[in-house]
Design a protein that fits this description.
With about 220 residues, the protein is an alpha/beta fold. Helix content is about 40%, strand content about 20%. The protein is built from nine helices and eight strands. It has helices at about 5-15, 35-40, 50-60, 80, 95-110, 130-140, 165-185, 205-210, 220, and strands at about 25, 45-50, 65-70, 90, 110-120, 150-155, 195, 215. The chain has an eight-stranded parallel sheet with strand order 7-6-5-4-3-2-1-8. Helix 6 (about 130-140) runs parallel beside helix 7 (about 165-185). The protein binds pyridoxal-5'-phosphate. The site of pyridoxal-5'-phosphate has 14 residues, from strand 8 and helix 9.
Length: about 220
């Protein structure tokens, strides 16, 4: 597909700018299997999708060594389709959803890696826990009894704005929350170590604020 002839080069260019230890997730949502194949040929193995059905379809038709990330709003009734193979769910936005993922993890005998999504942007349309809600949920403690999920870190999306100061402030706030949670609930536990922040327009800023998983779509797959 001509449209994806640049994909491999773009991936290599982006990867060359990332510090060691930062994982690039190629967000292939809305793009066909051919787009993923072009990225795969350039050595890319981490891919992100925002719809369970698209993720399942792509998982079925692409190589087994791909690590699939779920980054969209997750409906409870869709968890069962991705539970057997999902590498990381970035978008846990309620304790109820965490419980549901735990239930499906138990059915397939997995401990499913998850991130808690933090609502930090100014848009109301975005999902996630506010920092206070997130701390309250962790304080309450029920999550500790869920044997088939593993909280590996936090995810956030900054506001969709050109205001660099605001974006900096939002990523900085999430990093502060990440450090607080790490110290309070996961001290000396390596499993809490993922900060998923940054997309095509703002990933360099996110990395400055400690992001180690960047989710890049349009900069890889669009003209
Ligand atoms: C679509 C999407 C991305 C990628 O956005 P781009 O601006 O295309 O890089 C990253 N994260 C989430 C949660 C998304 O929905």
């Amino acid at each position: 597909m001509k449209q994806y002839s640049e994909t491999g080069e773009r991936i290599k260019r982006i990867r060359a700018t990332l510090p060691q230890g930062v994982t690039l997730i190629a967000v292939s949502k809305y793009h066909p299997v051919e787009a993923v194949e072009a990225a795969y040929a350039a050595g890319q193995r981490h891919f992100g999708e925002s719809k369970a059905q698209d993720l399942v379809t792509k998982h079925q038709s692409l190589p087994d060594d791909i690590c699939w990330h779920f980054i969209g709003h997750l409906q409870s009734n869709k968890i069962k389709y991705i539970a057997p193979f999902i590498h990381l769910i970035h978008s846990i936005d309620s304790l109820r959803l965490l419980r549901e993922v735990d239930k499906q993890g138990a059915k397939v005998g997995r401990k499913i890696p998850c991130l808690l999504q933090i609502h930090i942007a100014q848009e109301d349309t975005k999902f996630g826990f506010t920092p206070d809600e997130c701390l309250a949920m962790l304080d309450e403690g029920e999550w500790r009894s869920l044997q088939n999920v593993e909280i590996r870190g936090l995810m956030c999306m900054a506001s969709n704005t050109d205001n660099k100061e605001q974006i900096n402030a939002e990523f900085a706030a999430v990093k502060t929350l990440f450090d607080t949670i790490k110290e309070r609930f996961f001290a000396n536990e390596e499993r809490f170590g993922i900060l998923s922040a940054g997309m095509s327009d703002d990933y360099p800023i996110a990395i400055k604020h400690g992001s180690n998983h960047v989710r890049v779509g349009s900069a890889i797959f669009c003209e």
